[in-house]
Amino acid sequence: MAVLRGEQGCPWDREQTHESIKKYLVEETYEVLDAIDEKNMHKLCEELGDLLLQITFHAQMAQEKGHFNICDVINGVVEKMMRRHPHVFGGESAETSQQVLVKWEEIKAGENEKPKPLLDVPNNFPALYRAQKIQEKAARVGFDWPDVSGAWAKVQEEILELKEAEATSKGPRIKEELGDVLFAVVNVARFMGIDAEEALQETTKKFIKRFSYIEDTAKANQVHVKDMSLEEMDQLWCEAKEK
């Protein structure tokens, strides 16, 4: 990467900034996740390399400005892991993973300059994932329903408010109330121990699979999907569910 960014290096690599390539960091991360979901170890190895390249790219640009280098990145995370695992590298003990998480948050809070833990959740997280992370942090300090029944009641309340907004209001309030419904549903997922982001991803994949069946069947019958009636598509949808 130093060579690529050097005077005799690649014009494209030399032009890049932290801002210009940040989208690739996200893209490569999602490609790693796809490889994990596919249980493809060869692909996972390759995608981890692509992700590592992005980390190296950012570190090299920082080194050129005198901020830090790749060794600082590695040493920093090693020190952090040792500091946050006193039950492994220190004299403390932890018998369960829950005890580890509680201690982790305590240590992290002591390291962080921000007094509000919710501010630690990155704005660029996917929305469902971010909502669940924020709810988890709030729950750790006691701001939570005693059990899932309270979360379910909140979902019903927010649905009624959304329906009311749809009947009486314009876009901004409807959007707000829809967001409240989604946030409340994520809270139910958290109580059930379900990752809301993963659940929606799996449902989306299921939808794609079933709709692809409709498209493939239509093509086999030399019919365009847009020329089919809703009843015809719904019949194929039901067939796809049985596959």
UniProtKB/TrEMBL annotation:
Q: Name one GO biological process term.
A: dATP catabolic process
Protein name, entry field: Nucleoside triphosphate pyrophosphohydrolase
Superkingdom of source:
Bacteria
Q: Which CDD domains match?
A: NTP-PPase_MazG_Cterm, NTP-PPase_MazG_Nterm
Which is an annotated Pfam family here?
A: MazG
Which keywords belong to this entry?
Hydrolase
Q: Annotated Gene Ontology MF terms?
A: nucleoside triphosphate diphosphatase activity
All copies of the NTP pyrophosphohydrolase MazG-like domain together span 16-89, 154-210
Q: Which InterPro entries match?
A: MazG-like_dom, NTP-PPase_MazG-like_C, NTP-PPase_MazG-like_N, NTP_PyrPHydrolase_MazG
